[in-house]
Design a protein that fits this description.
This protein has about 130 residues and is mainly α. The chain has helices at about 10-20, 25-30, 30-45, 50-65, 70-85, 90-100, 110-129. Helix 3 packs antiparallel against helix 4 (about 50-65), helix 3 (about 30-45) runs parallel beside helix 5 (about 70-85) and helix 5 runs antiparallel to helix 6. The longest helix has 17 residues, at about 30-45. It is elongated, with a radius of gyration of 18 Å. The termini are far apart. The relative contact order is 0.08.
Length: about 130
């Protein structure tokens, strides 16, 4: 409720308190709750400029998540948090790693001709969906 009411500092402290009440094996026995609570903590931490705490939580989520679908929201928030800190090389590395995991690649060089070809290929893929 505090998070919805834009009281992110209070929400952050309440969410951290909730996390402290979970058993040590919460990732194994309360996976969905751990995933949701961890993401809410990271969101509240980012909103209150507790960037390092947000990053720690997001990396924990990414480590413990069982599948890529569970990791993706954390990767997005991690990139946004790193960007807020001005760590643009880390943002690039994070996005590049996830794109590679998804089977995509970032070209070493960029030209207008290559861009037009990539756009045409992407549009063709969407048409096939």
């Amino acid at each position: 409720k505090a998070l919805d009411g834009c009281d992110h500092e209070t929400a952050y402290s309440y969410l951290c308190a909730a996390l402290s009440l979970l058993p040590k094996d919460h990732w194994e026995n309360h996976y969905d709750l751990s995933l949701r609570l961890g993401f809410l903590i990271a969101s509240a931490a980012k909103s209150t400029c507790h960037y390092d705490e947000a990053i720690i939580m997001l990396r924990k989520i990414i480590e413990k998540a069982r599948c890529l679908d569970d990791q993706l929201p954390s990767y997005i928030l991690l990139s946004q948090t790193l960007h807020a800190q001005g760590k643009l090389n880390d943002v690039y590395d994070t996005c590049s790693a996830i794109l590679t995991e998804l089977g995509e690649s970032i070209p070493e060089s960029y030209t207008l001709c290559k861009s037009a070809k990539m756009l045409a290929e992407t549009l063709k893929m969407y048409e096939e969906l």
